[in-house]
Amino acid sequence: MNLAEKIFAAHCGKKKVSPGEFINVQPDLILSNDITAPIAIKEFRKIGVKKVFDTKKIVMVADHFVPNKDITSAEQSKFMRDFANEQGIMYYDVGQMGIEHCLLPEKGLVLPGDVIIGADSHTCTYGAVSAFATGMGSTDIACAMATGDIWMRVPQTIKFVYHGKLGKWVSGKDLILFTIGQIGVDGALYAAMEFTGEAIDSLSMDSRFTMANMAIEAGGKAGIFHADQKTIDYVKSRASRHYKVYEPDADAAYAQVIEYDVSKMEPQVSLPHLPSNAKPVSKVGKIEIDQSVIGSCTNGRISDLRIAAGILKGRKVHPRVRCIVIPGTQQIYLDALHEGLIEIFINAGAVVSTPTCGPCLGGYMGILAGGEKAVSTTNRNFVGRMGSTKSEVYLANPAVAAASAITGRISSPEEITK
Amino acid sequence: MLKGKVFKYGANVNTDEIIPARYLNVSEAELLAEHCMEDIDLDFVKKVKPGDIIAADTNFGCGSSREHAPLAIKTSGVSCVIAKSFARIFFRNAINIGLPLLESEEAVNGINNDDTVEVDLEKWTIKDLTTGKQFTAKPYPEFMSRLVKTGGLIEYTKQRVANRK
Ligand code: SF4
Predict the structure, then answer these.
(1) Disulfide: which of A108, A207, B96, B97 matches A172 by Cβ 3.0-4.6 Å?
(2) How far is B151 from B130, CA to CA, in rounded Å?
(3) In angstroms, what CA-CA distances link A198 with A162, A329, B106?
(4) Residue B164 confidence (pLDDT)
(5) Which of A48, A190, A389 is facing B162, going by the closest CB pair?
(6) Is the CB of A353 inside a 6 Å radius of any atom of ligand 1?
(7) Nearest-CA residue of chain B relative to A155?
(8) Is A298 helix (H, G, I), strand (E, B) or coil?
């Protein structure tokens, strides 16, 4: 069995599972947020149980529209908060919260070998710690909260092997944008993506989170990494429960094995309006931008902020550009503060927000007007994703986003730092 | 038997287009339905009538996991969606809430925008009444059929919970 199949087998009480098989899985953690929890709670009330099956396996995070942007979102948050208090489940509100997919790994709530389901498509982020994590809808989450189990279909797995050593400004973001560019936004539809190879071994945990995060942008059910020493170092001090590392069998079956040599790869930029429109930054042409967003569950972690600050240090954001920096969690914010990064951002003329999804999904904190263009470290550049349907979003890594904020057009960090 | 006029769209229709995030500060189905398909087809809500059908190319419903998307479509009056393929989370969500989905490449290729189409969910057939052409769709796997026949995931879970007591 491959990695995903091993984890599934362990969570449904079977010796062996195969792709296509319908199984009943007992997840280790069930997640929802201020957008998806309200529907889940309403559905939960219909099932006929009063209490969730296990308060320690259910977590809700207010992150999309908080601190509340308007009265209706305040009502939604209150609805979720009241339920969380009534049930005694784990709940992260303003002051403790962060963007869910930055927060849960940081808190040690997602661990190797886990099955995690979340009412958010980027739940797949936790594949970085070698968990099988996948997004679902609110009704699925409602039922899982009631019973502690959920139906799943065992997916096919596509194995990706990345050869070579990565260039200076190339990160997990570039590997995943490149991959989606190669296979398309439905290239891994219904499949798990297993990421391996020399280039992957060298990636930081933060870069792995970025890659796993965007598996959904290729249609994937999950993106999953093997646990290595870096993984163990990351989870060891955070974990408060038992976890198990699984390895694929030597003769594991894959639907497909795709290999890339990434040693000559440049930073990638995905042009509007699909993440699959990826190009090397040198081939993008002259694109003037109005906004640069550095944050989100894709690239709002401390190493992302370090990279951006490294480029912005002693330089100024272009007068035409609004540069918005959003640390993913309170802890990341604090670390950035201690390291002097926040000061660098402010001196450069960027604004720094409290942790929130903010403009990533066009919520608030940086909505685009018609005709405006943004370079963003987020994960989706769909029509209207960050505001007006006539605006455009270019996806890139934090180095490109920071460099572009300085030049006022999409730029390679090479341009600034040479 | 489902019957209605077809609204036809291209590939990769995403859930941000089906129901933009600026409307996600509410979760009431009726309020969501007022903005259904707004970012891909501004006139959709003005034109759609009960029973109408959406047909689309590959990967329909990709992107965000928001259940608000199938909910908005269902509440707007749409009786089913026919596509060459569906994004995974959208597929689950639609099955769970009782919005029928049909996977059929030949139907999507053969049906035109505005045609009147009849769908038989027992036989998995799709008939274009405007052109007279008939197509077939891929039936759901057995487990999913059972889920749909039970009335969706909530009903299914309710029964499981009741049987346990
Ligand atoms: S940061 Fe963006 S992609 Fe991530 S959870 Fe928030 S809205 Fe979704």
Answers:
(1) A207
(2) 31
(3) 6, 30, 43
(4) 82
(5) A48
(6) no
(7) B88
(8) helix
CA-wise closest residue to A76 among A95, A97, A62: A62
- pLDDT value for A52: 98
Residue in A105, A95, A136, A37 with CA at minimum distance from that of residue A300: A105
C-alpha angle A6-A8-A10 in degrees, rounded to nearest 5: 70
In tens, the pLDDT along B21-53 reads 999 999 999 999 999 999 999 999 999 999 999
The interface residues of chain A toward chain B in range 24-43, judged by CB-CB distance below 8 A, are 35-36, 38-39, 42-43
> pLDDT (tens digit, 9 = 90+) per residue, A199-211?
999 999 999 999 9
| A125, A297, A395: residue to mutate for ligand 1 pocket, most atoms within 8 A of CB | A297
Cβ–Cβ of A140/B87 closer than 8 Å?
no
d(CA A171, CA A166) in angstroms, rounded, equals: 7
Cα–Cα distance measured from residue B133 to residue A175, given in angstroms and rounded to the nearest whole number: 45
0.85 surpassed by complex ipTM: yes
CA distance A202 to chain B (A): 29
Q: Please, are residues A360 and A381 in contact by the beta-carbon 8 Å criterion?
A: no
Please answer yes or no on whether B63 and A380 come within 8 Å at the CB atom: yes
- Compute the mean pLDDT over every residue in chain B, rounded to the nearest whole number: 96
Q: Whole-model pTM?
A: 0.97
Cβ neighbours of residue B18 under 8 Å, at least 6 residues apart?
B36, B37, B40, B61, B69, B72, B73
Cβ-based contacts of A142 with chain B (< 8 Å): 154
Distance CA A136, CA A121 (A): 7
pLDDT (0 to 100) of residue B148: 87
Contact A35 B26 (CB under 8 A): no
User: A216 CB under 6 A from ligand 1?
Assistant: no
Mean pLDDT of the B143-147 span = 91
Query: Which protein residue has the closest C-alpha to ligand 1 atom 5?
Result: A297
What separation, in Å, do the N-terminal and C-terminal C-alpha atoms of chain B show? 37
Percent above pLDDT 90 for chain B? 95
A147 chain-B contacts, CB cut-off 8 A: 157, 160-161
- For residue A304, the CA-to-ligand 1 centroid distance in Å is 16
Longest dimension (CA), chain A: 64
Distance CA A96, CA A385 (A): 27
Scanning the structure block, which residue is given the tokens 């009741």? Answer: B162
In this prediction, what percent of chain B has a pLDDT beyond 70? 99
Q: What is the pLDDT of residue A417?
A: 86
Length of chain A in terms of residues written: 418
Atom of ligand 1 nearest to the CA of A379: 3
Q: Is the pLDDT of residue B165 over 80?
A: no
Tokens of A236: 């060891």
Residue stretches of chain A with pLDDT short of 50: none
Q: Which of B16, B20, B158 sits opposite A47 (nearest CB)?
A: B158
Q: Label the pairing between strands A29-33 and B2-9.
A: unpaired
Pocket lining: A360 vs ligand 1, CB cutoff 6 Å: yes
User: B6 alpha carbon to ligand 1 midpoint, in Å?
Assistant: 33
**CA atoms of B123 and A8, how far apart (whole Å):** 34
- Cβ contact A227:A127 at 8 Å: no
Does residue A120 line the site of ligand 1, with CB under 6 A? yes
DSSP summary character for residue A36: T
